[in-house]
Amino acid sequence: MNTIKNKKILYLGNQPVSNRYKRKKDQHTMRVNLKLVQEYDTGLIKLSNPVDPRYLMPKVSWLTYNEPEGHLDMVVSEINNKFFKRSKIIVGGISFKDDTTLERFRRRVTKYGG
User: What value does the CA radius of gyration of the chain take, rounded to a whole number of Å?
Assistant: First the structure.
């Protein structure tokens, strides 16, 4: 069995799932261990232990959320400069909410002729 070797990029520790509201102050808060890693062999950047998507779905229908996007140009620039330099990259998304970030990566790769 091959073990994938990863380089730790960012460790945020145990973070609460932000769409869970407690009914009582002393009620258990669901937390997830957030660690971003990069595979040595492929360069893939990923969460080391992804959360089951069922836990990320709000338990109440009235809760909706869209990520603010003002910071995304800087985030994409930082990721590109730190991990990819001028090499050709492949970036993927999971849902329609990733479209604007993916478009930012497309513009940067086009700029570099990738």
Answer: 17
Of 9, 25, 57, the domain-final residue: 57
Residue 85: domain span: 66-114
Dihedrals phi, psi of 53, to nearest 5 degrees: -55, -25
Residues 48 and 70 both lie in one domain: no
| Crossing angle for the helix pair 72-79 and 99-111, to the nearest 10 degrees | 50
Q: Give the whole-number percent of the chain exceeding pLDDT 90.
A: 9
Structure tokens given for 41: 């062999």
Of 34, 36, 33, 42, give the one whose Cα is nearest residue 2: 42
Are the C-beta atoms of residues 48 and 34 closer than 8 Å to each other? no
Number of domains comprising the chain:
2
Q: According to the model, what pLDDT value does residue 77 have?
A: 86
Amino acid at residue number 19:
N
pLDDT of residue 42: 84
SS3 89: coil
Mean pLDDT score across all residues of the chain:
81
